[in-house]
Design brief:
Length: 334
Amino acid sequence: MDKSELRMDPLTREWTIFNDNRALPPSCLAAAAGELEPTPFRAGLERFAPHTLFYAHGAEGWQVRVVPNRAPVLGLEANPAVITDGVYSHLGGFGAHEIVVEDPSDRRFSDLSAGEVAKVVEAWRARIADLMRDGRMTSFTVVKNEGRAAGQTVAHSISQVVAMGIVAPALRRKLDAAKEYFVGHEQSLFAEVLAVELKGRERVVYENAGFVVFCPYAARTPFEMAIWPKRHGADFYRITADEVGQLGDALHCAIAKLNGALAGPAYHLVLTTAPSRSTQTEDWPGMDAEFCWHVNVLPRVHPISGIEISTGCYVNGVWPEVAADFLRRKEMQP
């Protein structure tokens, strides 16, 4: 693995990951508009990624396969200890970075059936559960970049499982907000939001026995969708077999409706789950009652603007009530 390091901004206390694998060549802008790289992940090409961390059976011998990322931004070789030098703090790029190959052929995520998406969900769950056994790992996430504008580089349907030796800043803010609300109201903020959305239903897009798909009240991007479990739980890896299938159905429906509404837009899919329980999470002793894992799908309709960078406020021209109504009425498209 190439050199990797995390550095903390003393003003915002947010971390930036520096990694040689993400260095951009002079032609990066031209490449951004070009074709995706050929896939090394199709069935029959397993020799290019021979180390299998997890797999689910399928017609090609496997349907889903998880392999180490050959160009990881974080790795097990780095020192996880934080080093302070005056006003600055840094640590080695410790963590794990894995690739979830979601199909053995060239099909897109939206081409998969709900059952096949459920196998992807199970791969996410199994790998996070395994990574949590390493006591040095603290926070975990799943990300999927679909489309060139969202950062997809390889012409294959993949997602990524990332583990870090720190509590990620975005997760820390959510944990703090959940704790503050619980202390003030003696009720989970997640339970309250879900109750409001199910009562009014103007932002609900889809619902099944285990999950609700809705456009968030303060959606960051046009047609952003949140996918929340009905059963409260801080840890994604603790979902049941039934919930794996139900989440597969909810994701399949959400992406199909998004494609029907926006003709196959680029998007980010992000899964947020609680950190491991350790001395680093002493600030959230009531985490199990306060916090709930969740998924967000954020279309990349517009590039990030200077206003958003300067203020930290997203700019969205589509009200979530309008987006949800449009998505509800839209036929699902692959």
